[in-house]
Amino acid sequence: MKIVAIGIGSETGSQITLTDPQTGAKTVLMHDGKPVISKLDGEMLRKIALLTEGAYIPAGTGAIDLEGIMESHVKPIIQAAADSATREIKVERYPFMVLGALLCLLASLWVGSGAGDSRRSA
Question: How many Cβ atoms sit within 10 Å of the Cβ of residue 108?
């Protein structure tokens, strides 16, 4: 499985700003009276992408073009996997086993009903 990691944020760290969708007012996320600082761990994302033969895209803190990332990074990986994959459809042979099990069940019912009649007559 190949992983495409998109690094959103700053490796030096930055405050998290929340925008109210109704008013558009911006506030800084606070915890225990201090602003929350979020840091991007780009090195870890690079390692994950390299180990899985994927890609790491540092997007930074600005607006990102997800469609462009999909076209340039994700689609080639998917296309290469589809081209190299060979699909093998195996023949299912379980119906023969089911038929055998049903025959054994019918035989046990037949033997069981015959054994019960012989005890009653004795």
Answer: 10
Give the pLDDT confidence of 53-97 residue by residue, as tens digits. 888 888 776 677 778 878 887 788 778 777 776 777 788 888 888
How far is residue 4's CA from residue 54's CA, in Å, rounded to a whole number?
5
Which residue, among 112, 2, 104, has the nearest Cα to 51 in the 3D structure? 2
| Residue carrying the six token digits 């093998």 | 88
Return the number of other C-beta atoms located less than 10 Å from residue 57's C-beta: 19
* Token pair belonging to 36: 């929350």
Is residue 14 within 8 Å of 61, Cβ to Cβ? yes
Question: What whole-number distance in Å separates Cα of residue 39 and Cα of residue 42?
Answer: 9
